Amino acid sequence: MIFQPAILALLLSSLLCIGLLLAATPHAIDLIRHWDLSSGSERQLLRERRTYLLSTLLAFVFATQLVALLLFVFNADRMASLFVGAMCAVGTLEANALGFPALLAQILVFFLAAVWLVINHVDTRAPDYPLLRIKYVLLLCLLPFLLAAAVLQWRFFLALRADVITSCCGSLFSDATPGVTADLAAAPPLPTMLAFYLSLALASGCALLYRRGQSAGYLVALLSAVAFAVTMAALLAFISLYVYEHPHHHCPFCILKPDYSYQGYALYVPLFVGTAAGLGVGAVQAFARVPSLQSVIPAFAGRLAGLAAAMFIAVAVVASLIVINSRLLLVEN
Questions:
Q1: What pLDDT band is residue 118 in, cutting at 50, 70 and 90?
Q2: How many angstroms separate the first and last alpha carbons of the chain?
């Protein structure tokens, strides 16, 4: 089973990324300890050349992690046909105990990688690289998360067995099954719908205000995270029901299938991009007073805030179109 093309692509990419990160670690430690831009020594010149190479390699590594999340979910959905009892990605992820931990770890790595890329981009726009030590310290802090995600992914794929009878999404995301997913699936549609639109309105509104006035950057990040969590809950509580036109089908993965015109991608892609952009706005606020970044951060964070607002509005529009075009009636009038 490990010889599926998508699995091989994921495992090879994670192996390559971990290998590059481990190879970069000694150089990152050297840069943290000895970086001195005022020095004209030969070793400092070598470090300056090396940091260009490291920044490029690490940007490639973290950009790969952004794509890996999409490929992981896509692959889990495609593999559902190999397991007895599976109807979508849930069946694949439930085939052993490491499926959902691997997915959650990949989501966490996605957002951490996005934040690191934002900080790296800002740093490379300043002539004196003021965040060089900080971003390499962050790299060392991120390394355990990347290793954990890679190990979980490897163990999950290696433990997959085709003769396992797995669970379908109908049993996991049922309001009769004990657990958090059941509580979310059983949430009343109207209050959840109001919370969904309110969270997106606050997140996009705050991002637009930041773009105009360059204030409350941390609030943009906080509201982006809240909008992400509320939207995920809304997917379980009512959006998925409107997609399937069925009052008891709450699965957030079946909406990625061609049977439902891949509507899930139209929701998930702007949601993840908008949340990452919103978190990026908050991540650079601590460096806004660095002299060489005083003109860089407002411009770049403003563009990130605009992107976050556009993506959250897109999520609201797509969800509204799904509700309007559905023949299911959950909320009267």
A1: very high
A2: 50
Question: Is there a contact between 6 and 73 (Cβ–Cβ < 8 Å)?
Answer: no
Phi-psi region of 301 (alpha: psi -120 to 50; beta: other; left: phi over 0): alpha
Q: Comparing C-alpha atoms, which of 110, 81, 106, 109 is closest to residue 95?
A: 81
Nearest CA to 328 out of 205, 236, 240 is that of 240
Contact 6, 71 (CB under 8 A): yes
**Helices 189-213 and 263-283 meet at what angle, rounded to 10?**
40
Q: Measured between alpha carbons, how far is 287 from 29 in angstroms, rounded to an integer?
A: 22
Q: Which two tokens stand for residue 41?
A: 């020594």
Residues paired with residue 84 on neighbouring β-strands, in sequence order: 165
Instruction: Count the Cβ atoms, other than its own, within 10 Å of residue 321.
Output: 13
φ, ψ of residue 250 to 5 degrees: the values are -105, 5
Q: How far is CA 45 from the centre of its chain?
A: 36
How far, CA to CA in Å, does 45 sit from each of 16, 38, 57, 127? 28, 10, 19, 15
* pLDDT at position 176 over 70: no
DSSP conformation letters of 207-265: HHHHHHH---HHHHHHHHHHHHHHHHHHIIIIIHHHHHT-TT---SSGGGSGGGTTHHH
Comparing CA positions, the residue from 276, 308, 285 lying closest to residue 204 is 308
Whole-number Å distance between alpha carbons of 103 and 156 = 10
Q: Residue 242 in contact with residue 321, Cβ under 8 Å? A: no
pLDDT tens sequence across 39-60: 878 888 888 888 888 888 888 8
What is the spatial distance between Cα 287 and Cα 297, in angstroms, rounded to a whole number? 8
